[in-house]
Amino acid sequence: MYYPRFLPLGDTALSVEFGDSISPELNQAVVDLDLAVRAAKLESITETAPSYRSLLICYEPSLMSFDALVAALRGLMSLAKQTASATAVAWSVPVLYEPPFADDLPDVARQLGLSAEAIIGLHTGAAYRVYMLGFAPGWPYLGGLPEALHTSRKETPRAQVPIGAIVIGGVQAGIVPITTPSGWHIIGQTPLRPFEPDGKKPFLFGAGDSVRFRRVDKAEFDVLSALSPEALLEMVRTER
User: How far is 38 from 16, CA to CA, in rounded Å?
Assistant: First the structure.
């Protein structure tokens, strides 16, 4: 198999595949091309969506044919690292790992044979990468969950998981952006809101961003929760 592959998806979209595995290197190639495409502002392209290992590109075929678009994308790929803007953000996400915001922490501890404190230590000690957004608006799929915390999802999903829930499932971590059903395990809560539909930037996180979790107590959680969204963001965005 040779990569990248340019695969038609109907007559108005294509997928650029960079490989068949999940890795930071492949995902960075996806992010680089996405940024290069955005910077090029090709009139024919209407939307892009990065995933773990591929970039979805929607386009208007009356403005550019499939073959012409592929040729243009190959040219952009050769310049991607030079033209892409440094837009990735490093986030320090405050988390309260206490009842009633850590409903599944005791069960996860029993399943993994670890103490709750050990799970919190592992969770806060890891560096995570936002590979993609999906499932719900603004949901960041985070790679980097320590192997000791890998666990199957809940046998019976919850009907409602609250906004800001810090969750783990399988080999991934996540932050819940809207109230939604989910089978991921709730181990904490953050005052951050990954999805603000009325904000200037509706999606807080972007593919390629880095995330670390920081433990806070109830007093600090309450203080952070009382801040305006703008003030809270300035406190948790560590670097661009």
Answer: 15
